[in-house]
UniProtKB/TrEMBL annotation:
Region Disordered, annotated ranges: 137-161
Residue ranges of every copy of the TMC domain listed in the record: 576-682
Membrane-spanning ranges: 266-293, 365-385, 460-479, 506-526, 547-566, 684-709, 759-776
Coiled coil segments of this chain: none
GO molecular function, one term: mechanosensitive monoatomic ion channel activity
Protein name (record): Transmembrane channel-like protein
Length: 828
């Protein structure tokens, strides 16, 4: 026989927080135990009351539905109007399908329909949870140990007074239970309560006040008071230290402001710039500690001609800067410390042999291994960062769930300052716009003619971009060849006027920087003709075209330095080609910074003024993410290329990045506007890190490795003078160690087989690539598992609907069978 379901929240079982039939049986068993204990003790009156309560509970658990409507007269009189209205809406929704009482009983036992009805039910539910947690934490004496008078009275169990008094008593019980819990469990319970922040704060204050009253009544010993004071002081110091470390993170407020006004696309540019700063700081610390500082403490013995500072050195990097720790040529080829001037001249092998008896600082080995380890550690950090960002950005995150989390769970209630609240609200608003834009984006199906025309336009656009890049690359190639031949023919004319020679050397960096400034504008014009519907696709296409331009320029320049200048440096009047290449890289970095300022001035500031004053429009230019990011990658590649030839070049790059950050930040805030179509740049950071790793660092590592393994160093400067290649420094050191101590011949053989043999280098690179491949496969497997779990969640909902419908159909079949039996009995 079908029975009704009790939806009344003021019911004692609902207030007790019962969430399953198993809990209900546990309560009934506990009453049976109490009855048995009372019977054994002879307390007949209490046993009669418990038996009466047991029978009341059994009767009330028979699923009576006190519906809130005029047709149901057995509704409880103590229910409030709010609960009546909520029950009416809920039962109308449930009975709208015409479900039976058995189906309604199952539906009423679901957690989503039994939790969170009103504040009293929530408090009662968590009161029971805290009570259970207390019972687990501490042992409780049996009820036999209490006298009958001290036991809780249940005479008026079924009688309820005012609901407000009941709620106050529940709150008091909850406060008592929370007060007896440890701090960690108490915080966890308060966080898990589905109440407002004000109510949680009120409950926490009540608990704290009660604790203070208890502590004030107790007389603590001096030792306990001192211990509490020390713990509180240590905790406050720890939190202050964490807050201080958090405040040391640079540009926090500025990044939040950019994210709130311009979205995640522009934010990704500044986060990438911040990442480059950290890489250069690491590189500067390594080279400064192991190369610059030892050489600065022990300057070389050779007397060098010093030139007066003219100011042009800031542009050219030459002049008085040439004979300083900034460039390769200043570093010595012997073991430090060494003070004899005459011994400093000579070949590297003799220098190494004469100093082998000293256990000091070998500058050639330090130079070689410092550069090699710096590149290796940077590669490890980049690959790790790339894998982490790849796992975060390419994880399957459906916009519906992210939108829900951002809408209901993104606000930080600890933020109280007006400015911080405004920044956070702008940030959340922009993120919601991006998510909504992603949800509303539709893939419209077009006809074959439209698709064919679109592909033709894309083909023409890419042809224009490739042709223009090829033409610029050929122009830079022939112009660099012209500069090289001009130096070969006229280098004697500039011996009396070196400033003129250095000024002429600025022509090649100026031409390359001008191409890097103008050609991306052509790419943007071509992309405007293509009319991309998605802003993210437009950004990725622009990144690809700018990457093609920067890579081609750097390839031509590396060929110019390593293929022309290094083999024929004496023909152009150079004594140290490594220092010359270092000066060239300094000039390229400086000219790149100058043209970045010009782009900010003319491309953003003057365009905004022209649009406002002349065109009378309020439109502002949109920040070009692709071009600015590729400019950063281009500059970082120059810095990595120049570490071998100029150990202090990372310091110049750090200063440049700091200036670029503040200049671009001010320009974005004043001169730019947010994209017209908001989009969520969830994978841009991963793309930037990948481009920084594979084309940039990999290309710089190949060039530096080729220089160390294949190109002959200068014979009159640097730590590798007199050697056939820079790589021979390690081999010579091993030979000297073996000659001085034959027992160390094993190290020489290990160096020969493991370091000089390229087979092990290829094996190490292969293992590294295999690890990257397996990590990518793991991430791909995680994506598939997440997709399967999301499908499973959807199938769970469908299964619930299916089971409810099947239960309803079975109930209808039973009703039809009963009706047929009744009709047959009546006919008989």
């Amino acid at each position: 026989m079908a029975r009704n379901v009790n939806f009344d929240l003021s019911h004692p079982l609902m207030e007790a927080g019962l969430e399953s039939p198993a809990d209900e049986e546990g309560v009934h068993d506990s009453f049976q135990q109490l009855i048995a204990e009372h019977t054994d003790d002879g307390a007949e009156s209490s046993a009669l009351e418990l038996q009466q309560l047991q029978s009341d509970l059994d009767e009330e658990s028979r699923d009576n539905i006190p519906l809130c409507g005029p047709e149901h007269e057995h509704r409880r009189q103590g229910a409030s109007d709010l609960e009546c209205d909520g029950g009416e809406r809920e039962m109308d929704q449930i009975q709208g399908e015409g479900w039976s009482s058995d189906t309604l009983k199952i539906l009423s036992s679901m957690p989503s329909r039994t939790i969170g009805r009103n504040r009293g039910a929530i408090i009662s539910q968590y009161c029971n949870k805290t009570l259970k947690l207390r019972r687990r934490r501490q042992t409780r004496p049996s009820i036999r140990d209490f006298s009958p008078s001290s036991r809780p009275s249940i005479r008026s169990y079924g009688m309820e007074g005012d609901t407000t008094d009941a709620e106050v008593s529940k709150r008091e019980r909850l406060v008592n239970n929370l007060q007896n819990l440890p701090v960690s469990d108490r915080v966890r319970m308060l966080r898990g309560m589905p109440l407002s922040v004000a109510e949680k704060k009120e409950i926490r204050n009540l608990v704290m006040q009660k604790e203070k009253r208890i502590l004030s009544n107790k007389k603590l010993s001096c030792y306990s008071q001192l211990k509490y004071y020390i713990i509180i002081a240590a905790r406050k110091s720890w939190y202050s230290w964490l807050s201080f470390l958090h405040s040391l993170e640079p540009w926090q407020t500025l990044l939040k402001r950019v994210s709130g006004r311009f979205g995640t696309g522009v934010l990704s540019y500044f986060l990438f710039l911040k990442t480059l700063v950290f890489f250069n700081v690491f590189l500067f610390l390594v080279t400064g500690a192991f190369l610059v500082l030892p050489q600065a403490v022990h300057p070389p013995d050779e007397a060098t001609e010093t030139r007066s500072f003219s100011g042009l050195e800031l542009l050219t990097g030459a002049g008085s800067f040439s004979h300083t720790v900034m460039y390769y040529g200043y570093y010595t080829n012997y073991t430090l410390p060494r003070r004899s001037r005459g011994e400093g001249r000579g070949q590297n092998a003799s220098a190494l042999s004469s100093d082998s008896q000293q256990f000091s600082y070998n500058m050639p080995l330090a130079y070689f291994f410092t550069i090699g380890m710096a590149f290796f550690i940077t590669c490890i950090i980049l690959v790790y960062s790339m894998s982490k960002t790849f796992g975060r950005s390419f994880r399957i995150n459906k916009s519906h769930s992210i939108l829900t989390m951002k809408t209901f769970s993104s606000w930080d209630f600890k933020v109280i300052k007006k400015k911080s609240v405004q920044i956070m609200s702008e940030n959340i608003c922009t993120q919601l716009k991006e998510l909504l834009a992603e949800l509303t984006q539709k893939n419209t199906k077009s006809t074959f003619c439209k698709r064919f025309c679109r592909q033709m336009v894309h083909g023409v656009a890419w042809t224009i971009c490739i042709a223009s890049t090829t033409g610029c690359m050929a122009g830079v190639y022939y112009f660099s060849e012209f500069i090289h031949k001009d130096l070969q023919q006229n280098y004697r004319k500039f011996e009396g006027n070196p400033l003129m020679k250095e000024a002429r050397l600025l022509s090649l960096p100026t031409v390359v920087s001008l191409i890097n400034l103008l050609l991306p504008a052509l790419f943007n014009l071509v992309a405007w003709m293509e009319i991309y519907e998605s802003p993210s696709v437009f950004a990725y296409v622009a990144i690809g075209r700018n990457l093609m331009l920067k890579t081609s320029m750097l390839g031509v320049l590396c060929f110019h330095w390593l293929g022309r200048v290094a083999p024929e440096y004496e023909s152009i009047g150079l004594t140290c080609w490594e220092s010359f290449v270092g000066e060239e890289l300094y000039r390229f970095l400086l000219m790149d910074f100058i043209f970045t300022l010009l782009d900010t001035l003319f491309g953003e500031l003057l365009w905004r003024l022209f649009s406002e004053k002349v065109l009378k429009r309020r439109r502002k230019p949109v920040f070009d993410i692709a071009r600015n990011v590729l400019d950063l990658i281009y500059g970082q590649t120059l810095a990595w290329l120049g570490v071998l030839f100029s150990p202090l070049l990372p310091a110049v790059q750090i200063l440049k990045l700091f200036l670029v950050f503040y200049i671009k930040m001010s320009s974005v805030m004043m001169n730019c506007q947010a994209p017209r179509k908001p989009y969520r740049a969830s994978q841009m950071t991963t793309i930037f890190i990948t481009l920084l790793c594979i084309p940039s660092l990999l290309g710089a590592s190949v060039c530096v490795t080729y220089t160390m393994w294949s190109i002959t160093p200068s014979t009159s400067c640097g730590p590798f003078r007199g050697l056939s290649t820079m790589f021979k420094a390690g081999k010579h050191w091993m030979e000297i160690l073996e000659k001085d101590n034959p027992n160390l011949s094993v190290l020489s053989k290990a160096h020969t087989y493991f370091v000089e043999n390229p087979f092990f280098l290829f094996v190490g690179a292969g293992i590294f690539l295999i690890v990257i491949y397996f990590h990518s496969q793991v991430v791909d497997g995680q994506r598939k598992i997440i997709s399967l779990l999301q499908d499973q969640i959807q199938n769970e909902g469908e299964d619930k609907k299916f089971l409810i419908n099947r239960l309803q159909s079975v109930h209808k079949q039973k009703q039809d069978a009963g009706k047929r039996l009744k009709s047959q009995d009546s006919t008989c």
